[in-house]
Fold each of these.
Amino acid sequence: MIESSDYITCHVPSTEQTKHLINKEMLSIMKKGSFLINTSRGEVIDEQALIDGLKNKKIGGAALDVYEIEPPTNKELLVLDNLICTPHIGAQTKEGQELASSVIAEKIIQKLLERQAESNQT
């Protein structure tokens, strides 16, 4: 599938098995002119291999919102004209922040009630 896909997106966690899943070998078999999108974890892509693939026009372009080192410091990567870099802020929506706030508040209340119950037992 990699050899014939126009777009490849990464949706995997960062594990020993997924580290540099997209590497020089994988990029070499991608369809010429295809695009790579990574919104999962930065370690999934070998950035040096990606840089080489983008510079050599092996792939048409890439879009990243995660990087091997956060925040991104690899200037060679950041200046490529066939790469779009964005911040990894998917949860920074109004709804996402409201949900996170509610979950945190519920956990704090739960912990306080547990401590109060423990106090009452002694």
Amino acid sequence: MPTLKDILEQLVRPGRDPRSDTPAPILRSDVLKAEDLLTGMQLKGTVRNVVDFGAFVDIGVKQDGLLHKSQIPNGTVLKVGDIIDVEIQKIETERGRIGLGWVK
């Protein structure tokens, strides 16, 4: 029954993305593109997607960074919209990848 209710709700409001209800990322004025990032830089970011291997975090540049599950403290449950502190660990501009670490 709950699944049918969800289906009917989507038929009434097609294309609604639940992530649009989350707060906007907290942006720094000195970080506008991937080239502005430096390894070791600490930023606040908004979790945009949680997957089996970690979480994608919006840090204010075009590409979301990946916070690998090995970097997330045990017992921590992340959900879309959470605002967390992260550190830039690896930048691969040619591949469009940003590796993040958890800031304690």
Amino acid sequence: MPFTYQEDVNHILPAELKKMMQEGGLFQLIDVRETIEHEEKNIGGELIPLNEIVAGYERIDKDKPVIIYCKVGVRSQIAIQRLQAKYGFKNLYNLKGGITAYLAES
């Protein structure tokens, strides 16, 4: 089943994530970029690269919101599509515009 960038996942705006972080909300933050990208710049997300996300599904919380991000929002959306299709996750949110948009609002 091919996965492409489509509007079939939940999204969260960078400003909404920043508010959740400031308020200490309960959520999990996952970075699906590659290790080198994560080491260069990150916003505190747990690193589970896209090519490991399906195998690493047990590391993903099913009981609270999970915000998944990448550089611009494409890989994170693909990750969500894969997790929803294979494991039925319903609590996943794509960071709209990725870390790029998040940092641009700082």
Amino acid sequence: MTDAAAFDAACATALDAARAADQRDPLRAFADRFLHPVDAAGRRVTYLCGHSLGLQPASVATLVREELDAWARRGVLGHHDGARPWIPYHERLAPALARLTGAATDEVVAMNSLTVNLHLMMVSFFRPAGARTRILIEASAFPSDRYAVESQLRFHGLDPAQHLVEIGPRAGERVLRTEDLVAAIERDGERLALVLLPGVQYLTGQCLDMAALTAAAHRVGATVGLDLAHAIGNVPLALHDWNVDFAIWCSYKYLNAGPGAIGGCFVHARHGQDTTRPRFAGWWGHDKATRFRMGPDFHPIAGAEGWQLSNPPVLATAPLIASLELFDAATLPRLREKSLALTGRLRELIQTWLADTVEIVTPAEADAHGAQLSLRVKRPGTTSRRLDERLAAEGVIGDWREPDVLRLAPAPLYNSHADVVHAATVLRKVLGP
């Protein structure tokens, strides 16, 4: 038997096992509740890019059309009338967001975008005073987070070169170690005002030990903020019990709310009930009972809603309602179980078929990763960007990030075990033996 014939046989065996797993999957019907991209010939592609932009729930068009119809038929009266009045529109999202984040409903709010929310949170929670003037982030933080942090430091008259602390992996390693982060927090303890870290690191797919890092920061008297862009809807969260001070996220990745969708924010109850905390204020954060009296004095709503600036964009919020209904129906524990199975299958196939060619950057431990696998091709001359293009030409959609990472993420709401086998097969075909 030739190597090609042996590989074909291995692919067939793997696909049979995957299809059997799909038949046993209690969540398999959810894939039909999404709209899947197709290629130029109309064939459905294998979409493994939910870490960047989730697929559109099939019910989104109906929900958006209903809001357009309400606007057309009711005009301004739609703020108060109809199936989903617009004034309390964002409140419909709080229960599901609370379940996904491990929070109380008054600790979460859907508003703005991630970076806007980060700035609003730093206004309230980065309060440099005395020796406490430093912010700790990871060295490869998402650029928008870094830009926001540096600009906040400069806003306070602080030089990032002196007051920004960056922690990276050890020499020769690709991911962060909890003990190194804890040591850095302790080393700068009395000088740290804020520790800002991701729940899941965007480049490597590593899920940080958020509970341990929050506890370490609090032991030295620092405030803790989390960027959950790649964590919400992906990994289990317990923000209230972990005692996280604040968190922010976007909703267009695993939450499938569409490009530029409304973001979200968590403020722990111990802060949310403190209406004297400094903040940048806006009308929609004002006490609901007196909001329309149009008075000059700002009285913030207790809880995360008190940080709102403006009423939510209804047409950009409706898709999140559709997606969160699916999360509630599927439940995060079942989704997480399937996610680990999908990512585990993809990892096993890559290690079996491409061990000499592909390095899996993402940690293997179940509690140290989400749905995403970050891959680095060890073959000289093969860039992640070029590999991403070749995979797309073969009907597998992932993405690449500089300097050398290809990201693939099977999302349990709409991906199958057969999708994973197909992606691994195409990756092997593109890269060769």
